[in-house]
Predict the structure.
Amino acid sequence: MSRIFPIASGSSGNCTYIGHGRQGLLVDAGISARAITNALADAAIDPQSICGIFITHNHIDHISGLRVFADKYSIPTFATKETVDGIVKSACNCPKDIHIIEGDIAIGNFSVRSFPTSHDCPGSCGYVITLPDETRCSICTDLGVVSEEVRLAITGSVAVLLESNHDITMLQKGSYPEHLKRRILSDHGHLSNVLCAKELPKLVKNGTTRIILGHLSRENNDPDIAKSCAVAALMDNGFRENDDYILYVAPPKNGKVILF
């Protein structure tokens, strides 16, 4: 049985575990090494079973615990060239064993491929993980728009963690300065509930049965609003929650393990 575990998701830190059998991977390590270790222990996952860490981009909420956790358990880290360059420059977050991902990477019993996202950070990417039973899982956050390249990459994945960052009205009426609102709403910012929901019917039509809404803004979103938006879009296309798909809203911390 495969499983995905959003350990942390949001602007305060991001880290997701994907596992099959006794092996697993991490995507991002944006919380402390202690917090990652404790979360894994609570889910009965041995950190020594993790065979690789894959970083989406080098913003601090995705790498703050990377060096300590990776070096403590001697786990190799992978990222795009631009992200590796950025991590190396910020030496305090750079692990000893770091590699540039090019094409498909076979690691443990997994195959991992990156795809570019439009976030305002050089080398920003998402990942598609192919598991030993040939099912696929995709992690895709920190993007202002779902490009055709992103859409093609994640379509066909059984489990998808997709960004549903903000409610547009809450953001526009909120206290953020105008320049930050413009950044978030741009094609290089973050994906809104509406844009996220728009992608979900095609995913379910093509085999996605586990949907995780991730990277929700604490200030400009609400889990119930994000979920309602997603469920409505799927219902409009004839898909019923808990019959055709299972949907989970990832909290900022203390997420749960989802089997698929």
